[in-house]
C-alpha cells in the first residue's frame, strides 16, 4: 500500500511533511494493538502556521485547505509510527476536527471535508471514516484548524 499511497500523493502534487514534533507535554501518537491514535495536528505549511478564524478572517474554502494540511501531517505521523512503511496502514477509522470559528459560523463540516476528501482520495477504500467536526473559540497559537485521527494498522 505504500506504493499506492506515495504514488497517489505524487500524482496530486503533494508531499508529506516531516512528522511534526509535539508542541507541549504529549506524544505525537500512541498505539494499542492495531489501533494508532494520532494527536491533534495543526494547520501549518513549511513556511509557518495557517492562522485565522473561520467566519471572520477566513472562508470555509480557505479552512478546507488548512484541513488538508492537517491531513498531510496526520499521514506523516502514521508513517513515522510505521517506521516509514505506509503499507502497514489498513484504514482510517475516525477524525475529530476542531475549527477556530466565530459563534455564528456553522460550516465546520465543510472545513473538515478538506481532510476527509484528501484521505479518501489518497487512501482509496481505506479512507472512509467516522468523524466529528466541531467549533472552537480558539485553537493553539491561533491556528485555523486542528485534527486528530484514529487509524488501523497491520499487526
UniProtKB/TrEMBL annotation:
<dbReference type="InterPro" id="IPR035959">
    <property type="entry name" value="RutC-like_sf"/>
</dbReference>
<feature type="domain" description="Endoribonuclease L-PSP/chorismate mutase-like">
    <location>
        <begin position="6"/>
        <end position="141"/>
    </location>
</feature>
<dbReference type="InterPro" id="IPR013813">
    <property type="entry name" value="Endoribo_LPSP/chorism_mut-like"/>
</dbReference>
<protein>
    <submittedName>
        <fullName>Endoribonuclease</fullName>
    </submittedName>
</protein>
<dbReference type="Pfam" id="PF14588">
    <property type="entry name" value="YjgF_endoribonc"/>
</dbReference>
Amino acid at each position: 500500500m505504500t506504493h499506492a499511497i506515495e504514488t497517489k500523493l505524487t500524482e496530486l502534487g503533494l508531499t508529506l511533511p516531516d512528522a511534526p514534533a509535539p508542541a507541549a507535554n504529549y506524544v505525537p501518537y500512541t498505539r494499542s494493538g492495531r489501533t494508532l491514535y494520532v494527536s491533534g495536528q495543526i494547520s501549518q505549511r513549511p513556511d509557518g502556521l495557517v492562522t485565522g478564524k473561520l467566519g471572520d478572517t477566513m472562508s470555509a474554502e480557505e479552512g478546507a485547505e488548512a484541513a488538508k494540511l492537517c491531513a498531510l501531517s496526520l499521514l506523516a505521523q502514521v508513517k513515522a509510527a510505521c517506521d516509514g512503511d505506509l503499507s502497514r496502514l489498513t484504514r482510517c477509522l475516525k477524525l475529530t476536527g476542531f475549527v477556530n470559528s466565530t459563534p455564528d459560523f456553522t460550516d465546520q463540516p465543510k472545513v473538515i471535508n478538506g481532510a476527509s476528501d484528501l484521505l479518501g482520495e489518497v487512501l482509496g477504500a481505506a479512507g472512509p471514516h467516522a468523524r466529528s467536526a466541531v467549533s472552537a473559540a480558539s485553537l493553539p497559537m491561533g491556528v485555523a484548524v486542528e485534527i486528530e485521527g484514529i487509524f488501523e494498522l497491520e499487526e
